[in-house]
Each structure stands twice: as structure tokens, then as C-alpha cells.
Amino acid sequence: MNLDKKKAVVDSLHEKLAKSAIVISTDYKGLDVATVTKLRAELTKVGVEFHVAKNTLLRRASEETDAALITDSFKGPTAIAISFDDPVAPAKILSKFVEDNEKMEIKAAVMEGKTLDMNGLKALSELPSREVLLSQVLSAMNAVPTGMVRVLAEVPRQMVNVLSAIKDQKEAA
Q: How many CB atoms lie within 10 A of CB 148?
């Protein structure tokens, strides 16, 4: 690769790393092209980018970004997964993929300026997806006004029941 191409790769990766919600560094040594392509397709479905680049280019691209915290993991064959929105999706996919393929290994991860150890990444992968979390929040937010409307509607209903009972009592007398 000539110098101009290297600069373009570094600039592109730097821009992506700067906007990322989570970056996960992996060792893909021993995986064949078909397996990596399958993993890349799974990650792409959920909006995660999977890049294989030279470690020196990754180190330069990660300067002045949160990914600079994991530059010591850029040794050997390195690929990085970058998610811009949902940090849970790549953690889930990569954790499951590592369980199924013993040759692949997760080296390090960084999310919002903090490094994640393997326990933290595993805990993140066990969270529900972003859509499920949003639906849970919305249902909780919807439950409060719905309950309040029911309580407020019950007061007039009870009043009507009381008046109806008084009316029935007076008619009977």
C-alpha cells in the first residue's frame, strides 16, 4: 500500500473510531475467509462495521479517540468491530461467535471512554437489545398515565354507582 492509501485508511478509521459507541478488538487468527465473511455479514445486519487493518494503521487511527485505550491489544492479527449506535449488538454477536469458534478471541473493548474486561463485555452481551430496552421504557412510561386515567375515571364511576343506589333505595321506599 502506498503512503496516500495508508493515509486514507487511517483518516477513514479515525473518523469511524471517533464516532463509535463501542470498539471491540479481536484476534481472528486461524479463521478462514468464509467464516470471517459470515461474521461480517451478521455484524453488518445490525449496523456494525468489522475492519481488518494493519496494527500500525490501527494505532495511528485510534490516536485522540477512546480506542487509544486499547492500542496495546493491536498485536498479531487484529480486526475491530465498530458500532455507532447500539453497543449491545456487537457484544452479543461476537460473544456468541467466540463460543462457536474457538479460534477467534476477543482481545479488548472500549465503550464511552472506558475499557471493558471480558466480564463486562459478557454482561453487556446479556443485556436485551436496544429495541427491547426502548420498548420496555416506553411501556413503563405509558403505564403511569394509563393508571392515572383509570384512577381518575373510577371516581366519577363510583359516584354514579352511589347515586344509582340512592335512587334505587328511594324508589323502593
A: 10
Per-residue confidence band for 137, with pLDDT thresholds at 50, 70 and 90 = confident
State percent of the chain over pLDDT 90: 5
Is the pLDDT at 1 greater than 80? The verdict is no
Say how many domains are in the chain. Answer: 2
Cell 494503521, located at residue: 57
Are residue 120 and residue 41 in the same domain, yes or no?
yes
> Domain range spanning residue 142?
128-172
> Tens of pLDDT along 94-136?
888 888 888 888 888 888 888 888 888 888 888 777 778 888 8
Q: Is 135 in the same domain as 119?
A: no
